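Standup notes, structure subgroup. Blocker cleared on the iron/sulfur cluster input:
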Amino acid sequence: MESHNGPTGQTGAHLLHRLFEVQQQYMHIPKQSILELAGELRLPVSQVESVVDFYSFFHRTPRGRFDLLFSNCTSCGDTAMMRSLCKRLNVTPGETRADGLVSINETSCIGMCDQGPALLVNSRTLTGLTAIRLEQIAAQIEAGVPVPEWPVEWFRVQDNVRKNGLLLGTAFETGSGLRAALEKGPEAMLAEVTQSGLRGRGGAGFSTGMKWKFCREAKGDAHYVVCNADEGEPGTFKDRILLSSHAHAVFEGMSICGHIIGASKGYLYLRGEYRYLLNDLHAVLKRRHKARLLGKHILGQAFDFDIEIIVGAGAYICGEESALIESMEQKRGIPRVRPPFPVTKGYLDQPTVVNNVETLAAAALIAVHGGAWFSGHGSEKSAGSKVLSISGDCTTPGVYEYPFGVSIQRILDDCGAEDVQAVQVGGPSGTLIAPDEFERKLGFEDLATGGSFMIYSKDRDLLKVISNFTHFFAHESCGFCTPCRVGTTLLKNGLDKIASGHGTKSDVDEMYRMATMVKRRSHCGLGQTAPNPLLDALKRFPEVFEQRLVHDSEFEPHFDLDAALEEARQISHRDDAEAHLA
Amino acid sequence: MSTRKIRVATTSLAGCFGCHMSFLDIDERIVGLIEHVEFSRSPINDIKHCHPDCDIGLIEGGLCNAENVHVLKEFRESCKIIIAVGACAINGGVPAMRNHFTLKECLEEAYLDGIGVENPMIPNDVELPLLLSKVHPIHEVVHVDYYLPGCPPPADAFMKVLTDLLEGKEPSLPKEILHFD
Ligand SMILES: Cc1cc2nc3c(=O)[nH]c(=O)nc-3n(C[C@H](O)[C@H](O)[C@H](O)COP(=O)(O)O)c2cc1C
Ligand code: SF4
Ligand code: SF4
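Run returned:
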């Protein structure tokens, strides 16, 4: 197995990493580089090309020397700001300015929802945008000041932890979890994890003990642990702070899992948007090597385990575990057919555990404090606590940790949310709820969540919110299966039609039919949840649609018929009556 | 219910007439059909406009120009049930391949730059319907009641849909007819 890390501990020979370097150097991936990389990594040219085309951070034609990507998330995005900077710098969104200096575009949520508006400039995260800051940015760009020389405070990312709980509030001594696990031995430690009742924090909530047990029992040449740090669900940023301030616990959870399942290799798949965390994470890995918590003969025992970091390149679908594994294997992030599940056939077709960052951090604490300690918190079917990323219309957005079973209202009170119209629990793929449901509780029994919690006040146009989410899914659909590839775009078009004031009741009925079909027929979780915002809104906020509909017509065309003739009118220099359509 | 025959109108918009040809592949079954059906506007009989009270309109082809839009609207106003027939009506089909290019590029290739073009000029006679900037499926302009897929749909599919409608049933196509390989 080749190492993906270079001798300096920096990321190296993985295709995604090499493409990142090429993209940074030439601001695109030249044809020649594709051929060279194919040779260097011994991959088919077609595979390298397909990867270049799949990930949104790679381009075939040059981006500007300053390449800016504004988040378009409802919490950390501000596309009006993007348009104003475009105007100021004379840039068309999505295109590179003729002199090659600058390009500006949108990107899906970059996980800065507690400190937006935010953007990526040459893949570095810039937070807390203001009109003044935009003006300063424009000046730096026009003056050609390289991004590394921009003031460091522009790039500061705060943790913003507002409320500690079981996970964030319990002091963790580096190495204590691993020491306890090695002392207990794999079987006893696995029993401890199972007894804790820990369920996956990535959203699906599968029992972690069971997952590890299945993987431990699966036969293979090697076993692998993968930490899913793709955190792409809009409104989610809790893994960000776990990685920035609790990285030891996360790596320790991976190591403990490795010990139990018999793996000697672990990977952390970090979303490209969090590249700014990479140096610190490598430094933590180095410290762990020094402390004999990683590498050969960990803590003097017969246990070898090492961890590498693989950085993604802008694809939400790579958070889906089998797509993530494909991406690790230097391919496009297309979800696999499951079963077989990764626990039996994962990375390189070997038994693999994929766990969320928070799940692994919790496992490290369970090793120290025991399963009973953990299961003593939370609710019956949802042991422990949940770290939430709270954003949107409230006075103090940030990270809050609660025992499972907490009510939505309690959370809203804590973060200073008033006049709330709706809450999107669990991100766009989760559930949109109305005020009469604010006594519902967080947990796998009722409202499951991967951690996103977005609040919308009465002043918000909910149709815009739903439309934003629907555009997100259409953009992020990997394109593998037709119901999702075509369906998400049709839902997006339908919402745009209604938003523009041309929708009728028949469009709503058609969208409902389409949404149900996309949900039922899609290959993976993305398509199966993509219609949720629309379906939830139709059920709970029908007036949002109702008030935009054209009521005196049963059907309105999907496009402006007369405008569709404009091009032909110009080419033929005609303007007679027949050259128009009513 | 009156005893008059069911009135069917048909047209080919931006299509190749292949769907109509396939319809005619019902062969001698047309004799039985005629017992219950009379054709209004259709290329089969050259009637120029729809009877204002048609029951079924079969539309082949998508929309590529202003005239297509006028015809489609006439059908929608005259027919109780509109059926989009074939890939072109349903998705735009082959004519929609031009959607990858601008209209200007298409016209320049056809009338100015193409091989063998004499007297190059882009036609602009007022008699000619203007082209839409893109080719569209018909459901984007009028409400469509049913879709009959295929390129073209097999004769049996036409028969099945028409027979179902004649019998007052919700038309449905069995898998054998929808399966093309
Ligand atoms: C479209 C899609 C995106 C996902 N994104 C993430 C993600 O960013 N992080 C994550 O941990 N799980 C994500 N998941 C869930 C993973 O597939 C998987 O269930 C999870 O990583 C398992 O870890 P857990 O058991 O610890 O939750 C995603 C699933 C889908 C369908
Ligand atoms: S549901 Fe969407 S994201 Fe998932 S495989 Fe199909 S096209 Fe790809
Ligand atoms: S669907 Fe096929 S047969 Fe019918 S008009 Fe189009 S190209 Fe011709």
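Discussed briefly. Helices of chain B lie at 18-24, 29-36, 66-78, 86-91, 103-113, 155-166, 175-178.
Next: hand off to the docking folks.
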